[in-house]
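step: validate -> pass
step: tokenize input -> pass
step: predict -> running
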Amino acid sequence: MSIIDETKFVERFQFFNGQRLFASDLQGLEEFNRKMRELHIQSLHGQGVCSGLAVNGKRGDRQVTVGAGYATDSLGREIILTETETLPIPPVAGNQGKSIFFDLTISYPDDSALEEAETREGICVGRGVVRLREKPVFCWVELAGEQLAPKKQKLKAELEAGLRIRLARIEVLNCELYSDVSIAQRQSARPARIPYIVSSTEKIGAEIIVRAATLTALSAIADPILITGTVNTSAAEFQTTPEYKAHLTGQRRLSVRTKASNVVTQIDLTVLDQFQITEQSRDSFSFLDIGLVIGADLTKTDVVDEDDHQKTGTRFDEVLRLIRSEWKVVWMGIEG
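step: predict -> pass
step: emit ->
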């Protein structure tokens, strides 16, 4: 049942000069503000660790440390630890030589469990408590079975209801940690961050260099070309360097026209699956890939420009022009 279900009506506290205030008036004001804050947390935020409460312990230790932090439970109650706490692990030897697992949990304390921080003398009455030092309640929950479920049903129910928040898990043998503290089971109030993904297609605009001298293993069967370039990704407005994925796309068969016969010659271009991203930042990435021109002599100078038949060049010049104008880089950036 939620707080709204339990509340028949909401009243705003009002005071006036000369009014006689009782403890119940001020206590009611504090209670109202606390309930409204719990309603806000319960309605708009998750239960679990919000910040801090880091748990540390190494194999062989007999205690763990819990750092200061803040958590909320399913009722919207705030669980606050203001300084590092050192907790001894459960003093158990083991179960017939086998280790035993425990979950470390934290929960909101009842007033009866809090230390009296300050008392004052009353008028015509005895002393009364005016401040309670708030401190969360820690509990080691023993686990059992193949599923490592809480052994005690009451603790299991409180964990499932979100009244206890799981911070870490330990494995104990011979009264000491059998392994380092695990936080994989830790319950977080923060929702998982949705990745920011942007994808686009850009023209290569690249430098293309014949590398026959350095790619001798490939030059025996084809003319190797190294395709390099840089893609500007600033329009995506990444906040950090994302993980880039990219590949080249374009027509694999290029058509060039020869000057002597004015006929079209087909040149086959095969791009190897060796696309590499060499440098990356949030605004750009650089790449290289290897292309193989098969069955054509790129050094011949019998190629003419289709728009101007008076211009001549090598077949490599024409391949370079066609790749720059027709080929594209398809890329995607994932910012986690």
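step: describe -> The CA atoms of residues 212 and 219 lie 6 Å apart.
step: cleanup -> pass
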